[in-house]
Specification:
The chain is 34% helix and 25% strand. With 289 residues, it is of the alpha+beta class. It has a five-stranded antiparallel sheet with strand order 4-5-10-6-7. Strands 11-12-13-14 form a four-stranded antiparallel sheet, with helices on both faces. Strands 1-3-2 form a three-stranded parallel sheet, with no helix packed on it. The longest helix is centred in the C-terminal third of the chain and has 20 residues, at 264-283. The chain is globular and about 60 Å long. The model has no long low-confidence stretch (mean pLDDT 94).
């Protein structure tokens, strides 16, 4: 790796002052698990990294509200989220997702803000948070703003964040009686990047779906909603035919990319199959919200 400066600010104001909106070689860093790999490979050569690990306050911790919503500081390690009783109670799909998210060594270091700001379509948390209707609060020298996760993710390793803007918090709305599930397929080991990920969130009465959110990732350039699959599920009583229609609609809508984990036709077939499986998992007892 080429030499670089490492800054460790202790306040948000100090951190923002160290960033440079005009210099892409100056980058904030959370856990650094993905960024360090890019640096070792020579893909990214920073002149300065601004570590956020000493920035406390709203950037760390998990809070639940009386209405069942959750607020998670951007620098909260994934392992802390994995073992949080509040997350398990209010959004257990996140807890279940953590069990196969990379490995425990990564989860001990990686942060929820980094998982979103990095913009990697293969990561597991973005599609889950998108399906749950999550938002982020981003701060910059100009102030702060709220973005849905859907609006935050703009492309392949791209987000709507400015170079001098940081994710401070992630807000997950109260899920009420909604049920959610996330399924992925890894072509290699269980810890490998997935070839496809599908997250669903359902408002259902028994086996009838009142409304659905269906999200695909890994096979696409970013985590993205498949609204044609959502429309196929809305108002339907779930059976094999309905799931086949939803899977076909979602597979045709998705803008699928080819990479080392599979061709576009192969990944399209994975989306088709996994939509139905994820819906059934969400409706099952162990998939209940």
């Amino acid at each position: 790796m080429t030499p670089f400066d490492l800054a460790e600010p202790t306040s948000v104001k100090e951190a923002l002052g160290l960033l440079d909106a005009e210099d892409p070689s100056v980058r904030p860093v959370g856990g650094g698990t993905a960024l360090m790999l890019m640096m070792k490979a020579g893909v990214f050569r920073p002149t300065r990294l601004v570590s956020l690990r000493k920035v406390g306050g709203r950037f760390s911790g998990i809070k639940s509200a009386a209405d069942g919503s959750l607020t998670i500081g951007a620098m909260t390690p994934l392992a802390v989220i994995e073992h949080s009783a509040e997350v398990a109670r209010l959004a257990p799909v996140i807890t279940r997702t953590m069990l196969r998210l990379s490995n425990v060594r990564v989860r001990n270091v990686a942060t929820v803000g980094g998982a979103l700001a990095h913009g990697d379509p293969h990561m597991d948390l973005p599609p889950v948070l998108l399906a749950l209707g999550a938002k982020v609060t981003a701060v910059s020298p100009a102030g702060e703003r709220s973005l849905t996760v859907e609006d935050l993710l703009t492309g392949y390793y791209e987000t709507a964040l400015a170079k001098d803007e940081l994710i401070a918090e992630v807000q997950i709305p109260a899920q009420g009686g909604r049920r959610a599930a996330y399924l992925k397929f890894t072509a290699g080991s269980a810890e490998d990047w997935p070839a496809v990920g599908v997250a669903v969130s359902l408002d259902a009465d028994g086996g009838t779906v009142r409304s659905a959110t269906v999200v695909a990732s890994a096979a696409t350039a970013k985590a993205v909603r498949l609204k044609s699959a959502e429309d196929a599920l809305k108002g339907a009583r779930i059976d094999d035919k309905v799931l086949a229609r939803a899977g076909e609609a979602g597979a045709q809508e998705a803008e699928v990319i080819s990479d080392v984990r599979g061709s576009a036709p192969y990944k399209r077939e994975l989306i088709r199959v996994h939509i139905g499986r994820a819906v059934r998992r969400a409706l099952a007892a162990n998939g209940a919200h």
